[in-house]
């Protein structure tokens, strides 16, 4: 229930939080399983949230195991279709729990479901594909060995900036991994290598490789031009949106920078805005009723999201 309710809200809110979302193969959004999406991981849990919102069917995502340490968090994560995966850095004693996670994934596959796994293992805010771990290959091979007709689709997430509210997101999907070629290899070790060879070859085409100091390349690859007529038309509501939302945005940005000045900054800030925005709208409505007639106060409440959208459309796409 929590998953469905948040997804309904998020599908509306994404129009504010993301300026532009582009998927090269829209048919993926209507795909049925069993399906494993094998992705890079540049932007913490925001990668999974965006894909969850876009897909028609429920999506199960693998997340770092230390986020499940508290019992209450574990229950919430389960409601949100998140499954823990543990790395050596989170304690060798926890690695055995990955078998339970793989079993849970395989049960999702048997129900023709979809799982998202981040094949690099960890999150780093960069336009670069890092070395792939073997977890994706092991999950796929073990599923095939159990007779599950699993398809594995490489997926590349690309963003315009990692500390810039109002994202341009470019999601690139590839062709299914060639299962037959993997299983022709004589040993499991060679099968793992062949799987990762195929996966890396595709991800290298799907993940943008950009020097962060090369603004010309950034503008060419991750900026979306805005026509002059649209910039002129949106200027007044964009200015109103910037003023009305500054009391929410800038304190949260400062707080997030103070507590999460790392690769999770972007996702944490977006999550805070996502969760607190409805309450901020209610607060603004309550304050507006003090000085304005009820009808005008209600208009402010209704128009504020549209003003926020206009602000996002006109803001600098490459600034931090």
Q: Could you describe the 3D structure shown?
A:
There is one protein chain. With 320 residues, the chain is an alpha/beta fold. The protein has 2 domains: 2-216, Glycerol-3-phosphate (1)-acyltransferase (3-Layer(aba) Sandwich); 226-314, no CATH class. It is built from 11 helices and 7 strands. It has helices spanning 2-17, 44-54, 71-79, 97-110, 135-145, 179-183, 188-206, 215-222, 228-259, 265-291, 294-314, and strands spanning 18-23, 35-39, 59-64, 82-85, 114-118, 151-159, 167-173. The protein has a 7-stranded mixed sheet with strand order 1-7-6-2-5-3-4, sandwiched between helices. A hairpin with a 7-residue loop joins strand 6 and strand 7. Helix 9 (228-259) packs across helix 10 (265-291) and helix 9 (228-259) packs across helix 11 (294-314). The longest helix has 32 residues, at 228-259. The chain is globular. The relative contact order is 0.14. The mean pLDDT is 88. Keywords: Membrane, Transmembrane, Transmembrane helix. Pfam families: Acyltransferase. Residues 35-160 form the Phospholipid/glycerol acyltransferase domain. InterPro entries: GPAT/DAPAT, Plipid/glycerol_acylTrfase.
Helix/strand layout:
Blueprint: H1 2-17, E1 18-23, E2 35-39, H2 44-54, E3 59-64, H3 71-79, E4 82-85, H4 97-110, E5 114-118, H5 135-145, E6 151-159, E7 167-173, H6 179-183, H7 188-206, H8 215-222, H9 228-259, H10 265-291, H11 294-314
């Amino acid at each position: 229930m929590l998953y469905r309710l948040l997804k309904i809200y998020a599908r509306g809110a994404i129009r504010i939080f993301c300026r532009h979302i582009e998927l090269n193969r829209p048919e993926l959004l209507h795909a049925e399983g069993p399906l494993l999406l094998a992705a890079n991981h540049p932007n913490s849990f925001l990668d999974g949230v965006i894909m969850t919102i876009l897909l028609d069917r429920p999506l199960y995502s693998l997340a770092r195991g230390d986020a499940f340490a508290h019992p209450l968090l574990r229950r919430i994560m389960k409601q949100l279709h998140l499954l823990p995966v543990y790395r050596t850095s989170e304690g060798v004693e926890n690695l055995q729990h990955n078998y339970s996670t793989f079993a849970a994934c395989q049960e999702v596959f048997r129900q023709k479901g979809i799982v998202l796994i981040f094949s690099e293992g960890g999150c780093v805010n960069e336009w670069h594909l890092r070395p792939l771990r073997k977890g994706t290959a092991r999950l796929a091979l073990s599923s095939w060995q159990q007779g599950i007709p699993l398809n594995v689709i490489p997926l590349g997430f690309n963003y315009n900036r990692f500390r810039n509210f109002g994202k341009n997101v470019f999601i690139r999907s590839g062709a299914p991994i060639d299962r037959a070629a993997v299983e022709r290899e004589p040993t499991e070790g060679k099968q793992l290598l062949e799987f990762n060879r195929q996966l890396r070859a595709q991800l290298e085409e799907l993940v943008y490789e950009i020097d962060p100091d090369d603004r010309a390349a950034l503008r060419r690859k991750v900026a979306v031009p805005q026509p002059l007529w649209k910039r002129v038309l949106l200027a007044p509501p964009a200015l109103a949106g910037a003023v009305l939302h500054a009391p929410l945005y800038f304190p949260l940005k400062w707080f997030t920078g103070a507590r999460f000045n790392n690769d999770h900054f972007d996702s944490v800030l977006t999550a805070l805005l996502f969760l607190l925005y409805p309450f901020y709208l209610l607060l603004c409505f309550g304050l507006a009723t003090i000085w304005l007639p009820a009808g005008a106060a209600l208009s402010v409440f209704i128009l504020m999201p549209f003003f926020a959208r206009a602000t996002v459309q006109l803001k600098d796409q490459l600034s931090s």
